């Protein structure tokens, strides 16, 4: 109950913050509408007595009041709905924005690796649509409380024993709370299969994967797995809903018995001449209202409890993100760092470059080391290529350099300063990156590229220059409206691009920043043919050397193509999370190790 009350209070303060005037209007209208109902019963009783006694004038007057109260009962709720509908929309927006902020607000990405975090997002996302129900429940509860007090006073006036009727409303309330707890638990328990089923649905309904699904004839298999998961989820929810319905029915039976008792009591007293016909009408009318009040109290409590659960989950999610932020190695002082060392700013230029000292790394929630004892220097002004087999740890190394994760052990130094001591966002402003799993932003082509440097997002000249560097100027000519072309099939008129075209735009985006200190290109051209990649990188490396000579900027390239890799000043060979060779192409070929072996193999394949 405490959680529901706290949740109701928090919901009220959200509504108040969003728009206090509309909140007050909705509460007042709801309360007026709710109080009108027991008043209507009272005047109905008075009207009946006046009719029985032949007081025509009084009966007419009471009749008018009854009619007005009936209109108030029926219509005030609707006016209140108008007031809280907009409130609910704004509250929902507020909630969804907080969800998005929590997902992206913390500088690391460790929390995204946690299954409990993913489960919370699965449950919270659809729950955000329930704000209108929750606000309606909250405002109706105020009205209901007032109506219950009014009803109780009217009943007590006739016979104090009739007060047992509102009291009998308590068991259905308790049962309703228990029932909601049962279904709430089931929602958490079924979050994982729901999430997996939704992923399968996205897979099966996305144009992007349609071809592969057809070729591998996977549609039936996906459907089967989706159905299996859905069945598991539905079965879990069905069991919970059935149990909840039985618990609710048990509570309502108690009230039903009390209702019957009240009727018998009043009718017997009327027959004995202690009450008039008007009182019988009053009690029948009030008892029906109490019945309705109980039913709606159960529903309202359920809605409020559900919203309280949603707010609790939001707190848990906030806690997970905050804990991740507080306990991430990013925030912990490193053993090698002097205690109390202040945070610093990234260097303007590199003179030494980037050094990794004895770096180990395992992904959050796993014990498997992905990088082990990595010690490496990326000299200022150099072009560095990282090669290695699939899963060797190349992209992980890139993520560590971008500060997306921090080493489990060891240090990453930027011109001698520990990356931990730098505010991550300041370091990221000095990075430009093209990732292997780049995002397909469904925006106008100009913005899709311009995003790489937000202040210049719509600057045609900068966007065209970046595309020129990415060797992608021809692509804009192929789009119906050039840079104005809306991309993505979410839009009716949106253009769908090929994988290579999307990748060219992503590369252009990576090249938007003109003077990054670190440019990371993690297989940014895998969709291009080797020759095109070679020419592109050849041109790019020449520019990078000029930039590197003046600012010490480092270019880091991850590629499986040796024709490109051989151009780098330094080649780093990664195997099973360890650096096994470093040097330039000539030195590594002379050494006759893994690099030379892989180079020969690839050269043979092209002969
Ligand atoms: N988010 C993650 N959570 C847990 N393990 C991960 C995660 N991402 C990668 N790994 C694991 O880390 C190891 C290194 O992955 P990484 O992506 O760095 O390899 P890579 O050398 O870039 O491979 P590729 O050439 O295939 O892109 C792999 O064994 C992979 O399974």
From TrEMBL:
It comes from Streptomyces kaniharaensis. GO terms for cellular component: plasma membrane. Keywords: ATP-binding, Membrane, Nucleotide-binding, Transmembrane, Transmembrane helix. This is ABC transporter ATP-binding protein. PANTHER family: ATP-BINDING CASSETTE SUB-FAMILY B MEMBER 10, MITOCHONDRIAL, ATP-DEPENDENT PERMEASE MDL1, MITOCHONDRIAL. The lineage of its organism: Bacteria, Bacillati, Actinomycetota, Actinomycetes, Kitasatosporales. Pfam families: ABC_tran (PF00005). Residues 354-601 form the ABC transporter domain. The keyword Nucleotide-binding applies. It is found in: Cell membrane. Residues 326-347 are annotated as: Disordered. It is a multi-pass membrane protein. GO terms for molecular function: ABC-type oligopeptide transporter activity; ATP binding; ATP hydrolysis activity. Residues 24-306 form the ABC transmembrane type-1 domain. SMART domains: AAA. The chain crosses the membrane at residues 26-47, 59-80, 134-156.
